[in-house]
Amino acid sequence: MQKRKTTVPFKGTKEQEERLYKVIEELKNEKGALMPILQKAQEIYGYLPIEVQEIIAESLDIPLEKVYGVASFYAQFTLNPKGKYSISVCLGTACYVKGSQQVLNRISEKLHIQPGEVTPDGKFSLDATRCIGACGLAPVMMINDDVYGRLVPDDVDKILEKYN
Questions:
Q1: 21 and 58 in one domain?
Q2: What is the pLDDT of residue 1?
Q3: Full residue range of the structural domain in which residue 91 is found
Q4: What DSSP state is assigned to residue 118?
Q5: Mean of the pLDDT values across residues 71-80?
Q6: pLDDT tens digit string along 117-146?
Q7: The domain that contains 109 carries what CATH number?
Q8: Is 135 annotated as a binding residue?
Q9: Is 131 annotated as a binding residue?
Q10: E strand residue ranges, 49-163
């Protein structure tokens, strides 16, 4: 597996680690503890980096592969950090037929990242989604809670400038 060159290094704090160990200690003897521990770990760190998965696996005395399998299977979990500005481009049918793939391509080109990645400075992350629920404004993207609709690729630069 090739490691992405645009990932942000793990920067967990001692306080986060202590919180994680406390959660594990509280939940480890419950049946099905892995899911709630992963959920709490993601609340603590914002995502589930391999370093956190290793702590969970070791603490629960289960294989890392099992922790990774659960974390990578469920859509509620993310293995990659999110940027300060999280960009989601809708690729649902209405948006796609109106050109959202070209908008996504322009963002990727501008930021030098692919969907699922974060810029090296941690400022922007990019995701392709299936529906934002604003089909009447297709094609649509969101940056954090801001919705931008009726987009064309030429709109991208001006919109991104607002977040610099």
A1: yes
A2: 40
A3: 85-161
A4: B
A5: 88
A6: 999 999 999 999 988 899 999 999 999 999
A7: 3.40.30.10
A8: yes
A9: yes
A10: 85-90, 124-129, 141-143, 146-148
